Amino acid sequence: MRICITGSRHWTNEQRIRNFLVVLVDFYGINLEIAHGKSKGGGVDLMVEKICDELGIIQWPFPVRAGKTGIDGPNFKVAPLNRNVRMLKSFMPDLVLAFRASGKSSGTDHTCRAAKELGIDVFVIREDEPFSDEILLDALTT
User: Fold this and answer.
1) How far apart are the first and last CA of the chain?
2) Residue 118 has what DSSP assignment?
3) Which residues are CB-contacts of 22 (< 8 A; sequence separation ≥ 6)?
4) Cα–Cα separations (whole angstroms), residue 79 to 44, 107, 110
5) Residue 77 pLDDT more than 90?
6) How many other C-beta atoms can be found within 10 angstroms of the C-beta atom of residue 114?
7) Can you name the residues that pair with 96 across neighbouring β-strands?
8) CA-CA distance, 5 to 31, in Å (whole number)?
9) Is the pLDDT of residue 92 over 70?
10) How confident is the model at residue 81, as a pLDDT?
11) Any idea what DSSP says for residue 119?
12) Which helix (H) or strand (E) holds 125?
């Protein structure tokens, strides 16, 4: 199972991400691969990278490559959005998991819209909503 994880840079609940990743490892085992944006700005990307390292999950980081020679374009404001589309098209995930904090989260919202346009299922986890294994398992089996 190939899952792209996106999320807010101001997301703070690392334990909720860990809970989801543990359920995914239990469900998919060694067949689980995770892509993330490897944002330098912190938040979900850094938490996912750390937890994947700890759990031994195969991960595919997609850092932004901006600047004159960057494949995501020269504009440092637009490059992260271009990277999101590159990540989806290159990695071809079966599912996008979006960890969405309250407030503005342009990159997360953009990734979700782009995934839907590409026909990829999207499951949004909101920081202020309760979590249970059943919520995720329902999403994975429907």
Assistant:
1) 14
2) T
3) 55
4) 18, 11, 12
5) no
6) 19
7) 4, 122
8) 16
9) yes
10) 81
11) T
12) strand 121-126
